[in-house]
């Protein structure tokens, strides 16, 4: 494409295709973007993520077909805008949901296996979450109880905690 943009006349002559599709001189126009290649080189080297640590802490089974966060990140950034909705109908360990949230998108995730659904919650909790809390969340989700993870995530504060000696 770079060669075509540099010298369109050398590489392509506008004409009507046998299918009837008209490829005009606009085909060689530089729109300032790039079409991604058909091969994404993303290593799958996750070995100590929050998700894996949580599974290990409580002895839960890890999803066997996890993929690196860079994969859904590429497509989420490429195909959606902030505040768009991302849907994953085979969530597994919910890598896509975690990335969507990090990228400022709303998301829906569907997973048939309750164990995978329960352990996917570890992706959204602070890494400092204790094993007993992780286990409690895991057990509740596996029992089909509703769990609000917001209760376990520290919220930012505008003010520092009160001290014995207020600042004048």
Could you walk me through the main structural features you see in this protein, from its secondary elements to its overall organization?
The chain is mainly alpha-helical and 168 residues long. The protein has a domain of 87 residues: Rossmann fold, CATH 3.40.50. The chain is 33% helix and 7% strand. The N and C termini lie far apart (65 Å).
Summarize the model shown.
33% of the residues lie in helices and 7% in strands. The protein has 168 residues and is mainly α. It has a two-stranded antiparallel ribbon. The chain has a two-stranded parallel sheet with strand order 3-4.
CATH superfamily of the domain at 54-61 and 68-146: Vaccinia Virus protein VP39
Q: What is the residue-mean pLDDT, rounded to a whole number?
A: 88
The CATH topology name of the domain at 54-61 and 68-146 reads Rossmann fold
- Biggest sheet: strands side by side, in what order? 1-2
What class do helices, strands and sheet pairing give?
Answer: mainly alpha
CATH class of the domain at 54-61 and 68-146: Alpha Beta
The percent range for strand residues is 5-15%
Tell me the quaternary state: single chain
Topology pattern, helix = H, strand = E: HHEEHHEHEHH
CATH arch. level architecture of the domain at 54-61 and 68-146? 3-Layer(aba) Sandwich
Question: For the CA atoms, what is the radius of gyration?
Answer: 24 Å
Number of strands: 4
Question: Secondary structure elements and their pairing?
Answer:
Blueprint (H helix, E strand, L loop, with lengths): L1 H5 L1 H4 L3 E2 L5 E2 L26 H9 L11 H10 L5 E4 L6 H8 L3 E4 L4 H7 L10 H12 L26
